[in-house]
C-alpha cells in the first residue's frame, strides 16, 4: 500500500507539474513537498483505516514519493525484500525459537502464555478476562 501511494503521488505530481523537474532532479520544490505531504497523509489515513500502525510504511512512502526508485527492478525488489524478511522472522521465531508466533493476527492465548514477548509484562488478568477465558474453555 505504502509503495503504491508513494509512487502514485510522485508520478501524479510529475504529470501535473512537468516544469518542476520531479523526474529529472532531486531538488526540493513545492510540487515535491506537496506530493510528499499528500503521500504521507494518505498512508497515515490508510494505516488508521486498516488499524495497522506500521512506521516502516511511512519510510517506504517517503522513499517512493521522493523519486528514489529509478527502475522497475528497484520497485519490485522492495516487496520481495519485505517477503524475505517476513520468512526470516517466521523461521527464527517459529522453527529455531519454538515460539508460537501468530502468522497474521494477535492471539490472546499465546500472548498470555508469553506475556514478556507480547509486551504485557507481569500482570494479573482482570476479573472479566478470567471469566471470559473460563467461558471459552467450557465451550471447547
Tell me the layout of helices and strands.
Elements: H1 2-16, H2 30-49, H3 55-65, H4 72-96, H5 108-113, H6 127-139
Helix pairs in contact: 1-2, 1-3, 2-3
What would you note in describing this structure?
The protein folds into two domains: 2-67, no CATH class; 108-139, no CATH class. 64% of the residues lie in helices and 0% in strands. Helix 2 (30-49) runs antiparallel to helix 3. With 140 residues, the chain is an all-alpha fold.
Rg over CA atoms: 21 Å
Distance between the termini: 38 Å
pLDDT averaged over residues: 82
Helix content: 55-70%
H/E element sequence: HHHHHH
Briefly characterize the structure:
The protein is mainly alpha-helical and about 140 residues long. About 65% of the residues lie in helices and about 0% in strands.
Keywords:
140 residues, mainly alpha, 6 helices, 0% strand, elongated
